[in-house]
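Re: the request from the purification team.
They wanted to know what the chain is likely to look like in 3D before they choose a buffer screen. I agreed to run a prediction and write the result into the notebook, where they can find it.
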Amino acid sequence: MAPPNGLSDVVPVRVVLQAMLLPCALLAYAQEPPRFSSATDLVVLHVSVTDKKGRVVDGLPRQSFSVLEDRQPQPIAFFGSDELPVTAGLILDNSISMFGVLDRLVAAASAFAETSDPRDEIFALAFNEHVRAALPAEMPFTSDAAVLRDALSSVVTARGRTALFDAIRSALDYAARGRHTRKALVLISDGGDNASTATFADALALTQASNAVIYAVVLTDPAGRDAKPENLKRLAAGTGGLVFTPRSVRDLSDVLRRIATVIRQTYTVGYVPTAPLDGTFRRLQVVVKTPDGRALVVRTRGGYLAAHARGGKS
C-alpha cells in the first residue's frame, strides 16, 4: 500500500565512496556543514554526553570521540555539536485512543517548534488507520510554529484504528527527504497497533537501518486494551533515543520542549563503515575521553542494521 499524500518508498541506491575522493570530502567537512546524498553508506550517530550527576558535557572536540563497530575502530568522517540544524518529524497518534487530548497534542507540537532552532526543518504526520502529512506537498517542511499548528489542526480527528508501524515507515521515508544530517522523530502514541500492514519487526528493522533517532512520548489510557508502551521503549532504545512518560497530558508541551532541548544537546558523529554492508546487525560503541579523565556517561544507539540508503543529507 502506497503511503498517502505523496509519501513514497525510498529506492535504495548504493553509492560507493572512492578512496581517491575521500581527502577532498574531509577537507570540505572542515570548511562547511557536511552534505551527503540520501543514498550514501553513511552511519550517523547522535551522541549524548553527561557527567555522573546527569549534567550535559558540551564543548568537547572531535578528538575526544572514537567509534568502534564490532570492536573495530572506524574513521570519523565528520563531527558536529549543537550548531548543526535538524530534520525533525512529529508523529502524532490520531486514532480514537487519543480522543479528548487533540488540543494538547497540537499545542505541544507548536511548543516543540518554538523551542527548536530556526534553521531546523520540521514536518508532522498524523495517523489512525491512515497516515496523513500535515503540511502540503509544495511545502513539506517548516520552522514556523504557527504554520505547523494550523496544519495539524486541519488533519487531526481522533477517530479510527491505529497504524503505528505504517506511520513509522512513512516517517522514516519522509525524513530521508530532509536536507540535514541530524534527523530525529518524536513519536506520541500509546504504542498500540491494530491496523498496520507493517509489523513491529518491520518497524524495528527500518529504524535500525535508519540514521534517525526516536524520542517516544507514551500517552496511555488506563482503560485502553491495545496500549503497548513497550513497543515505544524498544524503538527508542534501538536508536539511542529516550522515552518520556508524562504524568498528565497537561505536561505534554513541557515534555516536547524538553525533547527539543535534548536534541540540541547532542553531538553528531558520522562515519562510512570499513566493512562492506551485508545486511547484518553490527554492534556500536562510542568512547568519549576528556583531557582531565573525568567519568562520563555516553548514550547512543548500540548498533545498526548494515543495509543501504539510510538517508543522511545535510
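For the purification team: The chain has two domains: 37-82+266-305, 86-264.
Please add any questions underneath this entry.
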